[in-house]
Amino acid sequence: MSDARPGPGEEWNPGPVTVPRQAATVILVRGGGEGLEVLLVRRTPRARFMAGAWVFPGGAVDASEGAGDAAHRAAALRELAEEAGVRIADPEALVEFSRWITPAQVKIRFDTHFYVAELPEGQQPSVDGEEVVDFGWFTPDGALAANRSGEILLVFPTIKHLEQIAAFPDANALVHHARGREVIPVEPRVVPPEVGGEVARIVLPGEPGYD
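The structure assignment produced for this chain is given below.
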């Protein structure tokens, strides 16, 4: 069982299950032989959902973007431009890496498609200071260590993706792996605290307590 706890904005839902909104996220990476770095942006502390958390750029699919894979790619590129100031012209430059569905026990839910992309040559991230207030390039292990020390705040899906990405030596290796990867939807579950316990915990499919 994971020792992760629900993050900011992931309030327990005692009522009917919320239908998840379609969403898309970009894991933007850089680094060749010198190593792999990933871009994280910090959400404003005033946000209703995941306030102050460091996340991959992303957000909900707009109705005008349609449905299906094309809509998810359009949303991913739009959010990357809006939140990180990075523009990728070709939607096919995004390589689908994973799909995560927010636990049914949580009020605010998303069905999120995660894409991997390399930083386009000559571009540098920038933030608007409103929805996103900061950004940074991190090695996966560096981001995880900063979260453990309290320097930055990461939420469960970001942590799990960083743990996977940490296994790759550079951006090319990660993108190559993603191109041959079978994407299977993952829906974690929130397990209520046991008698005498204080906090709920998150478990993944196959872990004790999931079923």
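Interim note for the steering committee: Residues 21-186 form a domain with the Nucleoside Triphosphate Pyrophosphohydrolase fold (CATH 3.90.79.10). The chain has one domain: 21-186.
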